[in-house]
Amino acid sequence: MNHVLIIGAGGVANVVVHKCAEDKNTFHKITLASRTLAKCDAIAAAVKAKHGVTIDTRQIDADDVPALTRLLEELRPQLVLNIALPYQDLHIMDACLAAGINYLDTANYEPPEEAKFEYKWQWAYDGRYRARGIMALLGSGFDPGVTNVFTAYIKKHLLDEIHELDIIDANAGDHGLPFATNFNPEINIREITADARHWENGAWQTTPALSHKRVFDFPQIGEKNIYMMYHEELESLVKHFPEIKTARFWMTFSDNYLNHLKVLENVGMTSIEPVMYEGREIIPIQFLKAVLPDPASLGPRTKGKTCIGCVAKGKKDGKDKTVYIYNICDHEEAYKETGSQAISYTTGVPAMIGAKMMLKNTWRAAGVRNMEQFDPDPFLEELAAYGLPWEVKEL
Ligand code: NDP
């Protein structure tokens, strides 16, 4: 019997639980645990109403490794899906290691005191996971996640050699509010305000945040400004495909979004350095998160589409070729189906598919793995079947 423990009860976890409940042949038993039990119970009630599936719920602080290890030893699930925040990654990996349980997440570890995400901390568990005979699948969301699988698909079917890779993420959704982030505001703002990094001729190049801008014509959406930034999948992709000479990540931002962000940054509200306020230490970005709209509240009001994909240039049969592989997801349809908007939907569906690949032993290894290290075909087939169809174009 396949039993999964899902940790976290935010917008993404809501989609993951809905999607796991939809596939009763793979996910026989689902337990949802998070810091706030009421949020788990609300998701469980919605899933019961929609799919008739009972979700067990538990309260857990995933940063308390002994308590989480006890929970894992009590429940003995086949797999833990970490859908909490990147700060919890290592604690959850530690508990999985202690209890001998497989692990999956959607975002790589970031130390709370430093806005810097890197795979080195999680890759360092490889030897211990191998020795324990368990697997960790890192970054099974959309980007990272599907973008890694798209790259593996390009290498397997479309290009003999990939020379240039551009991952391009558009959110053309409109929630009608002056300023809001579409996933956890703290993680989102830390990511966007960090220096941009891209890979060029065998080395990382660092440039100031949002200093490279282009225009890209997205299918079904049209032209949008895209800005280069650093994103975690670049690190694993250039490691696993050393032929890639240039790798960049781009995201769309409206002028309105960037103006708000600039002001917040200029007045110090995006800082992660603690400040004293009325005798108490507070971290400005955490206070900002508390006053910004909860991303989950954007679901019912967001209209429009997301388009995320990879443009790869390289050689096929000795000739130059450029291909584009992408998915388009509609905010309103995602909300109608799950009660979460497209950002959560495009992350939650691949998390469920990654879990399915592990539970069915389609993707199996002992140790710590990234998505591009497995056969992309079965994953992409399931992805399309569970709500995220994808297209390939030659440019
Ligand atoms: P939310 O902030 O909406 O939800 C996070 C959940 O984790 C909350 O329920 C929170 O509990 C819970 N949590 C936080 N700390 C702990 C803890 N110590 N123990 C137990 N539970 C905890 O985030 P999202 O749902 O938007 O995002 C979830 C993850 O998905 C993040 O890691 C994010 O980076 C990742 N992501 C990945 C993407 C991809 O494409 N790869 C894209 C978008 C997001 P509480 O409710 O009590 O605060």
Task: List the topology elements.
Elements: E1 3-7, H1 11-22, E2 29-34, H2 37-51, E3 56-59, H3 65-75, E4 79-82, H4 89-99, E5 102-105, H5 120-123, H6 126-132, E6 135-138, H7 146-158, E7 161-171, H8 185-193, E8 196-200, E9 203-207, E10 213-218, E11 222-229, H9 233-240, E12 246-252, H10 255-266, E13 275-277, E14 280-282, H11 284-291, E15 305-316, E16 319-330, H12 331-338, H13 342-359, E17 367-370, H14 376-385, E18 390-394
Parallel strand pairs: 1-2, 1-4, 2-3, 4-5, 5-6, 6-17, 7-12
Antiparallel strand pairs: 7-15, 8-9, 8-12, 10-11, 11-12, 13-14, 15-16, 16-18
The structure holds NADPH dihydro-nicotinamide-adenine-dinucleotide phosphate (NDP).
Written description of the protein model:
With 395 residues, this protein is of the alpha/beta class. It has 2 domains: 3-137, Rossmann fold (3-Layer(aba) Sandwich), CATH 3.40.50.720; 146-339, Dihydrodipicolinate Reductase, domain 2, CATH 3.30.360. The protein has helices at residues 11-22, 37-51, 65-75, 89-99, 120-123, 126-132, 146-158, 185-193, 233-240, 255-266, 284-291, 331-338, 342-359, 376-385; strands at residues 3-7, 29-34, 56-59, 79-82, 102-105, 135-138, 161-171, 196-200, 203-207, 213-218, 222-229, 246-252, 275-277, 280-282, 305-316, 319-330, 367-370, 390-394. Strands 7, 8, 9, 10, 11, 12, 15, 16 and 18 form a 9-stranded mixed β-sheet that branches. A 7-stranded parallel β-sheet has the order 3-2-1-4-5-6-17, with helices on both faces. A two-stranded antiparallel ribbon has the order 13-14. Helix 1 (11-22) runs parallel beside helix 2 (37-51) and helix 13 packs across helix 14 (376-385). The model has no long low-confidence stretch (mean pLDDT 96). It binds NADPH dihydro-nicotinamide-adenine-dinucleotide phosphate. This is Saccharopine dehydrogenase. It holds the Pfam family Sacchrp_dh_C. Residues 4-137 form the Saccharopine dehydrogenase NADP binding domain. Residues 141-388 form the Saccharopine dehydrogenase-like C-terminal domain.
